[in-house]
Amino acid sequence: MNGSEPERHRLAALLAGKGVLTSPWLREAVEAVPRERFLHPGVFLDEGRTWRPVTALGTAAEEWLKIAYSVDTLTTQLDGHLTADQVDEPVAGVPTSSSTDPTTVVSMIEALDLTAEHRVLEIGTGTGYSTALLCHCLGEDNVTTVEVDAQVAARADAALEAAGFSTWTVTGDGLLGHPYRAPYDRVIATCAVRRIPYAWIRQTKPGGVVLGTVGSWPWGTGLAKVTVGGDGTAEGAVIGRSSFMQARAQAAIPLAGDLSARTAYADSERSALLSPLVLEEWMPAFLAQLAAPGAQFVRATDGDGSPLRYLFDPERESFAQFVAADGDRWTVRQGGPVALWDDVERSLVAWQDAGAPEIDSVRLRVTPASHLYWIDQAPSPRWEHRIN
Fold it and tell me: What are the C-alpha distances in Å from 99 to residues 4, 70, 132, 180, 227?
């Protein structure tokens, strides 16, 4: 063995040992595709409040391979433009592109239930590493990948070419799919979406599978897997937790201004039946996004240091403000046309009454007009999101 080959075999063995990597053909791909080629020009390592740039040229070969074959997500771009070769010192910023951790990448490809003749559409090329794994398994002509960021797409395309894969790399809005090469047997998204775009369903063959992360918060999102029917609908389940960067077109705009001014005038005030702190847990956060799909959860502190929590829905001009009272009790103040916490609280109480099942109990059905979600153990409530 030479170069990164020992690291590739070690990674494959590690993933197989975790029970994530089970298919021989996919193990062969992990052992063959050099992940380090897809990290050019470098990565940012999380140091808490800043990101430390690391490049292959400025790092010892052994250390660079150790980073490349870690089972971590490696950030490759900050703030939509900054790459590691452009700075010498740690910087602040928001990750906007990354090489997803191999455990997640491999488990998602396994979940596609691929066979050799399948044609796949990938939404979110990123570095191109997952694209290369798919190309190795299916052949480059059976893989189409779409990336919204032109610079990211160019780097991925160059890395794919260098690795020997001349696949279909498209720069564009992945939420629209890529109808030119449709229909597909499988669609896989490596970004999170508020709901599965119907374009993905329309471009998938009957019997085909669409796999993507639904939700808009950094946590409390789920990996949805639906099978497309012959009637233009799709049905399936949330098969587990998942966390990805939001699709660029759907990324939430950070709330600006004085939060106390935004919540100065409430239409109602009452004791909350449940603590808003439950929204910091994965499944309650997922249910909150079903009940109030446009809402953002915000943590803050009052002037005296006591905790504050908020739900804001900018589109529906509504808010819920939570103020800690005595003991574990909270007061909720709500304003705007939608009583956000009333909707969320009903969902959480029904979920608790059903025994607090995990996220893989959630099922969904996608039609041209709506998304419908429900929990197997609790037929009520059902959450229907209409598509305007």
Answer: 17, 11, 12, 27, 27
The domain limits of the chain are 102-251+361-388, 253-351
Catalogue the E-assigned strands of 47-195. 51-54, 74-78, 95-99, 120-123, 143-147, 168-171, 184-193
pLDDT for 300: 84
Pairing of strands 74-78, 95-99: antiparallel
Residue 45 main-chain phi, psi, to 5 deg? -100, 135
The two structure tokens encoding residue 94: 């928001």
- Model pLDDT, residue 1: 43
Q: Does domain 253-351 have CATH number 3.30.160?
A: yes
End-to-end Cα, the chain, rounded Å: 56
Confidence band, pLDDT 50/70/90 cuts, at residue 3: confident
Interstrand relation of 234-241 and 268-271 (parallel, antiparallel or unpaired): unpaired
Single-letter residue type at 106: V
Q: Is residue 268 annotated as a catalytic residue, yes or no? A: no
CATH H-level, domain 102-251+361-388: superfamily: Vaccinia Virus protein VP39 (3.40.50.150)
Q: Residue 174: is its pLDDT beyond 80?
A: yes
Q: Is the dihedral of CA 381, 382, 383, 388 positive or negative?
A: negative
CA distance 388 to 382: 19
Residue type for position 283: M
Q: Find, among 128, 161, 165, the residue nearest to 146 by Cα.
A: 128
Distance CA 174, CA 95 (A): 19
Nearest in space to 102 (alpha carbons), one of 70, 143, 64, 137: 70
Q: Where are the alpha helices (DSSP H) in the chain?
A: 5-17, 24-32, 61-68, 102-111, 129-138, 150-162, 198-202, 259-262, 282-291, 340-353
> Model-level pTM?
0.93
Distance of CA 326 to CAs 206, 271, 331, Å? 56, 11, 10
Which residue in 4, 97, 98, 361 is the catalytic one? 98
| Pair type for strands 184-193 and 95-99 | unpaired
- Of 140, 35, 15, 161, the C-alpha closest to 98 is 35
How many Å is the maximal CA-CA distance in the chain?
69
